[in-house]
Amino acid sequence: MYNNSFFKKILLVATVVIFSSCDKDYNEIGGNLIGGNNFDLNKASYSVLGYNQKTGPIQSNNLEVNALGIYSSTNFGETTANFNTQLSLPTFVSAVGARPFVESVTLTIPYFTDDTKTKTNADGSHTYVLDSIYGPEMAKMKLSVYESGYFMRDADPLESFKQQQKYFTDQDTEFNSLKVGSPLNDSSDKSQNDEFFFSPSEHVVVTADSITSVKSTKYTPPGMQLNLNKGYFKTRILDAANSGKLASNDVFKNYFRGLYFKMEKSAGAAGNLAMLNFKAGKITIVYKEDVASATGTAPTREKKTLVLDMAGNSVNLLKNDYSATGMTYNALPSTGNSADGDDKLFLKGGQGSVAILQLFDKTDVKGYDANGVVTAGPNGVSDELDDLRNPAGGKKLLVNEANLVFHIDAAAMSSSYEPQRIYLYDYTNSRLVVDYTLDPTSSSTSPKNSKALFDGMIKKDATTKRGATYKIRITNQIRNLINNKDSTNVKLGLVVTEDIEKINSYKVKTPNAFITQAPKASVMNPLGTILYSGKSTVPADKRLKLEIYFTKPN
Q1: Torsion, CA 517, CA 518, CA 524, CA 529, rounded to 10
Q2: Fewer C-beta neighbours within 10 Å, C or N terminus of the chain?
Q3: Phi first, then psi: what are they for 11, rounded to 5°?
Q4: Which residue has the higher pLDDT, 211 or 427?
Q5: DSSP H or E stretch at residue 471
């Protein structure tokens, strides 16, 4: 889902915008000083304290994309991702004609693909490169699709039905215990159940005209395509129409409560995991029925189609296993060393972890009075920040650019999938930082590449082709801190993100004094990464620092 060629174009445009915006700031802020050698351009680095914070079980309902499958990470353990969704009726059915006969019941869910790498085969069909698939290619797993017996409410009765009902990552046991009957994907084709895999091949359907016998071929891009039990859907769906069960979605959702997708290992194989847009999925029931004639003659036999959408309430259900891998991560405390910082920052999506950052050294032994004169005793502001707010000579620093540069622990991440982007936000207030808000860059064709100036995209080593760093631009955040003495130096949160444009937060199941919520886009991402922190024990060339480029009037 990341388009490299488009990304390069965005970066080119972003570079121009950066230079033009910096030039604008320079002239507006220091316009009365231009002329002669009135400025020195400087770079300074400042300390950043960082520590880990696990989320525990977290809200995971109604995500834009959901994980399905099994993914094992050396650093973060094994995750099994199941899924539950309501079904809905785009067209209501008040009655079904006599002698209904179901010809087929097909469940389809599209896969994300990199269309630039599609290969054309000799027979005219195509093989795609699947995007957002993690683990061995075409790894086999056991997929079971059940009718769900769990009713997913729209609103929370504990909130007087004024808030959306929340469902959480750790509720798989509850949904699994209420599944109904046997798996519906009971085809004799094992690739649809016991030996399921995410296939990169498109679906090819050849049909022949009943009169001319001329054949035509239809190609459909890769996606999950399962044949479901026809007798079950005749009884549960078509036969229920005449009793009013398909007359409205409210009635239907209570009658047929949805589908539960359960993933298990197949013959001990490792499995893999895919990100899917279940909202684009559907079940298509093709059937025949007798339709009465208006003239009183014999009824006619007609073929009809009933579609069930997967557009209702849903939840991603995640199970983490650390018995074989991810033991170091599992051993981390829920809250890291908030006083001195942790050596490494573990960012993990899903039911994972956040890094909490505090800018500037915590030392506070002096203060400044209203005239910028040093006073004895602490004043509740870091000395580093205090000195920036009160420069020697009283001449304000003009901040041209400020960045946080994160170095990846390349050795630890050498055999793991790496998140393509990380996201920084105001952790104290659970809101955006100003640099995100002011970034005008956007992309209608590749939304994940929006906010290119704010950045957070992975930078790769030219030799190893593996991730080396992430950089996030917080120029305006730092300007505000320095220029406005009443600005609070808030804690910042850092997470992996699936989509930079998804900015709202989801609640953790068990809030405490350290964490109450985390970005929704982090819950949507199954990956993790390990970054070096700003602790003094970290090698200087890998240490996290705040880098400020500024102009200092002479």
Answers
A1: -140
A2: C
A3: -65, -35
A4: 427
A5: strand 467-473
